[in-house]
Specification:
flat; 143 residues; 76% helix; mainly alpha
Length: 143
């Protein structure tokens, strides 16, 4: 087994373990609270198994990380960590707006007018979907 095949199998294997961990963690919850994590866990497990089998059957594996700008990847990961810490301080809407705009900028979307409009639209749609359609309480500064 060559190095590129091993690298290709790491991601589905990691997601399989993550799905199993989520399912195991949901066992300690009440039946009502555990429903969504269990559904997500089984979806992750099924998709990761399908991906693992697909990657295993491939004859040729190209370098997955060839040409990846790890500085940009690191900046996006750092922004997501910052997002988690800021969400309770500045609220869901402002924090998500900032994360969306920053991620688009890091990924070289340089049309700043469209970047701003897209970030506002994406954040608003997500906010309305979770807060009003799904009735998920989100941390906000104004509500």
């Amino acid at each position: 087994m060559n190095k590129n095949k091993i690298i290709s199998l790491i991601s589905p294997a990691a997601f399989l373990l993550f799905g199993i961990w989520v399912r195991y963690s949901a066992a300690s919850m009440t039946k009502r609270d555990a429903m969504m994590p269990i559904i997500v866990a089984y979806a992750i497990i099924i998709v990761s198994i399908i991906d693992f089998i697909t990657e295993w059957r491939k004859k040729e594996h190209k370098g997955r990380f060839a040409g990846v700008n790890f500085g940009r990847v690191g900046a996006c990961i750092a922004a997501m960590y910052l997002y988690v810490f800021l969400i309770k301080k500045i609220g869901f809407y402002l924090d998500t707006l900032w994360l969306t705009a920053f991620t688009m900028w890091v990924l070289d979307y340089k049309n700043y007018k469209m970047l701003a409009v897209s970030a506002v639209i994406i954040t608003t749609v997500v906010f309305v979907a979770f807060n009003y359609l799904l009735n998920v309480p989100l941390p906000t500064l104004w509500l």
